[in-house]
Known about the structure:
The protein is of the alpha+beta class. It is 22% helix and 37% strand. A four-stranded antiparallel beta sheet has the order 11-12-7-13, with helices on one face. A three-stranded antiparallel beta sheet has the order 1-6-5. Strand 5 and strand 6 (49-53) form a beta hairpin. The chain starts with a helix and ends in a 15-residue tail after the last strand.
Amino acid sequence: MSRIGKRPVAVGAGVKVNIHNGQVLVEGQKGKLAFSLPGRITCEIKDNEVLVKSPLKSRLDKSLHGLTRSLIANMIRGVSEGYTRELDIQGVGFRASVSGNILSLILGFSHPANFPIPADVKIEIPKPNQVVIKGIDKQRVGEIAAQIRRIYPPEPYKGRGIRYLGEIVRKKVGKAATK
């Protein structure tokens, strides 16, 4: 059995977990999430904890056992606390703004890069060079952050671009001047 999969997932206060027809439904103060259980994996709720069980000992079953437990734990944390991802924009004149459901990024291109904001994610701009992505689905928040970063990834010579907050970009030495 998977070591991660064996651990029970504690259900916090204000979170409801239902298992119905191979679907795990998690509901909390921030919203609702659903997950379909993989083939032979089963779940049950005992003493305010979710237990994930796997009947067979194959390598696929072991990996799905741990994965399922992690996904359910992420769903429970997401509907109670939520997830955030912060991006930092570095470069002279580079900035971001939100108007309606469009994130507009001015990154030195001939036109602003517009990114449509999905309905299940909130994007805030606390500073002109900082973007905060919030949501209840961990995978979705990370995916949106990666898509925004992909518009102008940090380049290694001057360090301009969009990076995760706290990300360290190793700079390269430019071409040496000839004498």
